[in-house]
Amino acid sequence: MSIHFRHHYSGTIIYDNGTFSKINTKTKVTMAPASYTAWHPDGNLIAYTVCKLNVTFSSDKNKVVEVWDKNSDLIVYNVKTNTVTTSPKISTHDRENLPFWSPDGKWLYFISAPEVNDSLSNIVYERYNLLRIGFDPEKLAWGNVDTLLTSKQTGKSITFPAVSPDGRYVTFCMIDHSYFSIFDRNSDLYLLDLETRKVEKADVINSNSTDSYHTWSKNGRWMVFSSKRIDDICTRPYFTYFDVHGKFHKPFVLPQKDPSFYLEDARYINLPTLVNGKVPIKNNEMRDFITQKEHAVVFDQNVDIDALSGATWLQTHGMN
Fold first, then answer.
1. Are 95 and 32 in contact (CB under 8 A)?
2. pLDDT digits (tens, 9 = 90+) for 221-273
3. Residues in Cβ contact with 279 at an 8 Å cutoff, skipping those fewer than 6 apart
4. Low-confidence ranges of the chain (pLDDT < 70)
5. What is the pTM of this model?
6. Rounded-to-integer distance, Cα 76 and Cα 40, Å
7. pLDDT digits over 134-158, tens only?
8. SS3 track for the chain
9. Among positive and negative, which fits the CA dihedral 298, 302, 306, 312?
10. How do the domains of the chain map onto residue ranges?
11. In this structure, are residues 108 and 135 in contact, taking their beta carbons and an 8 Å threshold?
């Protein structure tokens, strides 16, 4: 498990095989601490986004908050060696974000938007494409980048990709611009069949409100996603069945003992994640560890810094 904390006691806490560690993922080379997280299936590697998140407020009633990055890269942290690495292929002038590993660990999926100038309008209203890059887990070597779907094809911005456990499908959100779908009332879920490259809007599970972050069950038959369909304000976890024919079924909100629970409870239940069993952390164990001092990570000396062209390069050359 990997959790980021901001402000007081900031840092990244990793819980691995019963042991806590607290790391500072910011290095002299990377422009910011790590953020969006994706564990490699082997459990030894974690892909992170490195970016500086910006927030602005909008008069658009369908998206009152805009979240955007001027620069962003992808990095990979090795839990065993405490090292951070990257590649010129995922640290470019473009803005790479939201990593997600394939079930076999041989592909890293992510979204990417073109480089922008200093115009805030261009930064915020740019659209993201869906890409993936080959990866050799044994040699820790990067392959070629494969563009799966572009915003020119869809007319929208692609965000939050998630690969099905059998590796055949990719679910993702699409919105009008940027990538922060949870504040976008127009966010809907889509399905890409990697065998046929056919894209379908998942109409049966979408609503007239925000439908956003999602994760698959281990057997690939279920998916849980965040939705604001009850009141347009709070996110709740909805479940949908995914059959062997590649079709979603009518979703339902996580059942509660009290039928009026979601009418009276105003908490945001966001970023739902399905796991195999109970996380073995005792009460207050995480709370007590947060106050510990973080330790530094080491940047991979084998990476050619001058070959990087994105946020990492900007930080290295004092241009951030």
1. no
2. 999 999 999 999 899 999 999 999 999 999 999 999 998 999 888 888 888 99
3. 1, 15
4. 118-121, 307-320
5. 0.92
6. 9
7. 999 999 999 999 999 999 999 999 9
8. CEEEECCCCCEEEEEECCEEEEEECCCCCCCCCEEEEEECCCCCEEEEEEEEEEEEECCCCCCCEEEEEEEEEEEEEECCCCEEECCCCCCCCCEEEEEEECCCCCEEEEEEECCCCCCHHHHHHCCCEEEEEEEECCCCEEEEEEEEECHHHHCCEEEEEEECCCCCEEEEEEECCCCCHHHCCCCEEEEEECCCCEEEECCCCCCCCCEEEEEECCCCCEEEEEECCCCCCCCEEEEEEECCCCCECCCEECCCCCCCHHHHCCCCCCCCCCCCCCCCCCCCHHHHHHCCCCEECEECCCCCHHHCCCHHHHHHCCCC
9. negative
10. 2-218+275-316
11. yes
Tell me the one-letter amino acid at 232.
Answer: D
